[in-house]
Amino acid sequence: MTRSLRLASALVFIRVLVGFVVVALPAHSGESLAPALRARVDTSVQAVLARTGVPSASIALVRNHAIVYANAYGWAQLEPRRVATPPMRYAIGSITKEFTAAAVLLLQEGGRLSVDDPAGKWITGLGPAADVSIRSLLSHTSGIRDYWPQDYDPPAMLKPVTIEEIASGWANQPLDFATGSAWQYSNTGYVVAGMIAEKAAREPLFQLMRARIFEPLHMVSVFDFDAAPLPAGDASGYTRYALGPPRPAVKEGRGWLFAAAQLAMSASDLARWDIALIERRLLSSASLRDLTTEVRLANGVGTGYGLGLDVQLDSGRRVLKHGGEVGGFTAENRIYPDDGVAIVVLTNEDATDAYDTIADELAELMLVADSPADAAAVAGAKHMFSELQRGHIDPAHLTANARSYFSAVALADFKSSLGPLGDPVEFTLKRSARRGGLITRVYDISFSNKKLKAVVRAMPDGRIEQYTVSAK
Which residues constitute the domain of residue 242? Predict the structure, then answer.
């Protein structure tokens, strides 16, 4: 279940990763990653696991609408040790919300309900929440109080609960805010939405999702993690107290996960769902628009969230994503629909940011390092920065405007202010866009005690029109 995740320290025990193991399966398509890129992916994931001490990770990468790489790293279980392999299932936590929202939209397509129905039309005893719409439940704008804001499992959550008890205990309270006036993550809202889906479909939610989503997309590994722990052949979940060793996590009691976080599956099966979204399959155009369009508040402010999906721009690219966390597991799912790319990362430790760090690094490898144009631009910008640290720049690489900008005074200031910083620790492309006929790229430049931003605007022929540097 996605909860507010704490920052994980880089100084953690790594002894569990001695004898580190990597197991890969062939991609399920005619395309695969180049050997050099596969090696960089493997190195990146292994390095994050080594830094954080997270026992294992399973990944799946999509390009051109196909799974091009599936791999697993580390240990699915520590005592006795079992190697992580790509077919293993991991709990995906709140990534489940994508599927709950899709199931509701499929019911709407069939005329069973409307996402603009008030919740009270379907569920009795909701008190102030009776008037909130299903859409507001799925977009976290309902105002219904979240029953699980903690980054751990309170004692009550280790015991079974009914979904009716969750609804009566949390949904039947005063709203935290007027519906539509704010955005606040609420697992309770998804429990109520799942209850509505079951009423409209006249069948259990998991059965509905299996028939309408998992079977059509050949997602054969999907498991109801709310109903039971993962079988012995799958990944085991771990937790960690501060910088201590990983310890076996205790699973939440039955009922607490339900529509908010009940699913477990392999990384490749989650990637199959991503491919269906990229290819605009399964859902109608109207449903897909509802799922992936940012919901706005009553005051016009965007929430950055659709229905079960974060909707953002990342480095100028549209990305649909969601994280997930339950006891013992964290996960990240990112879809770049306009690029035909998706990244799935599943890990078997909770309260860690390793999954997010891995996804960040894989996104850079898939979308920047493996893009010839972007990779060349990054290399050129980094080289030019190094030259500017020495007070030099080749005028042949500049437009007439840029040559005017880089006067003797400007070059002297670049040298005196940037030269003493030494070599950057990181030089990262953060976003790109087009403006005024120029290609604009923004870079983050990090040193041990300073962070800078560089804005580089280039002509289509590669000549630099602007290279400015400022402090962050």
Answer: 91-270+281-308
**Whether residue 288 sits in one domain with residue 389:** no
Tell me the C-alpha distance between 241 and 247, whole Å: 8
Give the pLDDT score at 7.
31
Between CA 339 and CA 461 the distance in angstroms is 23
Which DSSP state fits 179? T
Query: Do 301 and 380 fall within a single domain?
Result: no
CA distance 423 to 389: 9
CATH number at residue 447: 3.10.450
Is 79 among the domain residues? no
The predicted structure's pLDDT at residue 19:
38
Examine the fold and report which residue of 308, 326, 355 is the final residue of a domain before the chain moves on.
308
Residue among 364, 366, 283 at smallest CA distance from 62? 366
Cα–Cα distances (Å) from 342 to 8, 199, 338, 363, in that order, read 25, 33, 10, 9
Q: What is the pTM of this model?
A: 0.86
Total domains in the chain come to 2
Record the tokens describing residue 427, joined without a space: 């030089």
pLDDT of residue 370: 76
Strand partners, 318: 313
Tokens of 241: 């107290």
Please report the pLDDT score of residue 395 as a whole number. 96
List residues bridging with 333 in a β-sheet.
322, 344
Q: Residue 431 belongs to what H/E stretch?
A: strand 426-435
H-helix or E-strand spanning residue 168 = none
Are 296 and 394 part of one and the same domain? no
The C-alpha atoms of residue 306 and residue 218 are separated, in whole angstroms, by: 25
Consecutive 10-residue averages of pLDDT for the chain (472 residues): 37 35 55 90 97 98 96 98 98 98 98 98 96 98 97 94 97 96 98 98 98 98 98 97 95 98 98 98 98 98 98 90 98 97 98 96 88 86 97 96 96 97 93 86 94 95 96 93
- Predicted confidence at residue 21, as pLDDT, reads 59
- 149: CATH: 3.40.710.10
Same-domain check for residues 173 and 246 = yes
- End-to-end Cα separation, the chain, in angstroms: 33
Q: Does one domain contain both 185 and 298?
A: yes
Contact 99, 213 (CB under 8 A): yes
Residue 247 is predicted with a pLDDT of 97
Q: Mark whether 149 and 230 lie in a shared domain.
A: yes
